[in-house]
C-alpha cells in the first residue's frame, strides 16, 4: 500500500525523533538470572564472622543490587531492559523496596477492599524469589492456625503499600520450597515479631540451620536435590546413596553455562543507574 505524500515527507523527521540514533548507547545489561548458579555458590563459600548477638561482623560488603534488575541469560534487547529498569526505579520512588534475600523474615502490607481498614498485613519467611524486571515475584510462608500459608507477591505491584524486613539473613539454599514438607516449627513466624536491626554496611549473615522433614509423602523427592539446609536423617543410608544418582553429574558442573556470570561492564552500568536513583531520592548509602 502506497504511503500518502505528506506522510512520506514527514517520515525522516519521525524516524529521527522517535528512534535512537546510530550513536545511541543505553546503560544496560545482557544477562543475569534472578539467582544465578555462580551467585548462589558464592554465597555458600562466603563465611561471615560475627558475635553471638549479631552486633559486629568481620568484613564489609559491596553495594547490593536487587536481582530483578540484572537481565537473565539469553538474547536480550538492551533498550527494552533499560526502559524496564527505568520503570522499576519509577515505582521505587513511590514505595521503598528494601534489601532482602531468600530466608529473610518479612512483613508485607497490601491493599485489600475486603479487610478491615482496607489493607492486610502478612508476616512470613521468604522462601522463593524470581522473575525479572517488573515481573519480579517473591513468596512468603507462615503457619496460621496450624495451616501452612504461602503467598506469592509481585514485587512491583501497585497493590503493595509497604515492604518491611524484620530480620535480614540468608539460608544455605536459594529455594526454600521444601519448608512445605518440613516440620511446622521451621515456618512459624510471630505476626507481632519485633524487627531486628541489621548493622549498616556489614555482611548479611547466613543461617546454617538444617530443617527436619516430616514423614513421607512429600511434595517431591527432596533427597534427590543437592540441598544443604535439610537433614535427611529420617531416611536410610541406602535411600540416600540411591538418591545421589540424580545429582548433577561432574561433567555438567564444569559446564560454562553453570558458571555464567553477568559481564563486569554491564554490572558497572547498572550500578551507576542504581547510584543515580539513590541520589535522586536523597538516600544515604550508609543507611542501607
Automatic annotation (TrEMBL):
Pfam families: Ribosomal_L19
GO process terms (BP): translation
Superkingdom, natural source: Eukaryota
Gene Ontology annotations for the cellular component aspect, listed alphabetically: mitochondrial large ribosomal subunit
Molecular function GO labels: structural constituent of ribosome
Chief site of localization: mitochondrion
Localization in the cell: Mitochondrion
Keywords: Mitochondrion, Ribonucleoprotein, Ribosomal protein, Transit peptide
Similarity comment text for this entry: Belongs to the bacterial ribosomal protein bL19 family.
Stated name of the protein: Large ribosomal subunit protein bL19m
Natural source organism: Acanthaster planci
Gene field: LOC110978914
Amino acid at each position: 500500500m502506497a504511503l500518502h505524500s505528506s506522510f512520506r515527507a514527514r517520515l525522516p523527521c519521525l524516524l529521527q525523533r522517535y528512534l535512537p540514533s546510530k550513536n545511541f548507547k543505553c546503560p544496560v545489561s545482557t544477562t543475569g538470572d534472578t539467582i544465578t548458579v555462580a551467585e548462589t555458590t558464592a554465597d555458600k563459600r562466603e563465611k561471615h564472622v560475627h558475635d553471638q548477638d549479631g552486633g559486629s561482623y568481620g568484613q564489609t560488603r559491596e553495594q547490593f543490587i536487587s536481582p530483578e534488575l540484572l537481565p537473565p541469560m539469553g538474547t536480550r534487547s538492551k533498550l527494552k531492559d533499560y526502559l524496564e529498569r527505568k520503570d522499576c526505579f519509577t515505582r521505587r520512588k513511590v514505595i521503598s523496596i528494601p534489601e532482602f534475600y531468600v530466608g529473610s523474615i518479612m512483613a508485607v502490607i497490601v491493599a485489600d477492599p475486603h479487610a478491615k481498614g482496607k489493607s492486610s498485613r502478612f508476616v512470613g519467611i521468604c522462601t522463593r524469589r524470581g522473575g525479572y524486571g517488573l515481573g519480579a515475584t517473591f513468596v512468603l510462608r507462615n503457619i496460621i492456625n496450624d495451616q501452612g500459608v504461602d503467598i506469592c507477591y509481585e514485587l512491583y505491584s501497585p497493590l503493595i503499600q509497604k515492604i518491611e524486613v524484620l530480620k535480614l539473613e540468608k539460608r544455605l539454599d536459594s529455594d526454600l520450597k521444601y519448608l512445605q514438607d518440613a516440620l511446622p516449627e521451621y515456618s512459624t513466624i510471630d505476626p507481632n515479631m519485633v524487627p531486628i536491626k541489621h548493622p549498616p554496611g556489614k555482611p548479611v549473615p547466613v543461617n546454617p540451620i538444617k530443617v527436619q522433614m516430616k514423614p513421607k509423602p512429600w511434595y517431591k523427592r527432596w533427597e534427590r536435590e543437592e540441598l544443604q539446609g535439610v537433614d535427611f536423617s529420617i531416611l536410610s543410608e541406602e535411600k540416600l546413596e540411591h538418591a545421589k544418582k540424580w545429582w548433577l553429574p561432574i561433567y555438567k558442573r564444569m559446564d560454562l553455562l553453570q558458571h555464567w556470570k553477568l559481564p563486569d561492564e554491564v554490572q558497572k552500568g547498572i550500578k551507576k543507574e542504581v547510584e543515580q536513583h539513590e541520589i535522586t531520592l536523597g538516600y544515604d548509602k550508609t543507611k542501607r
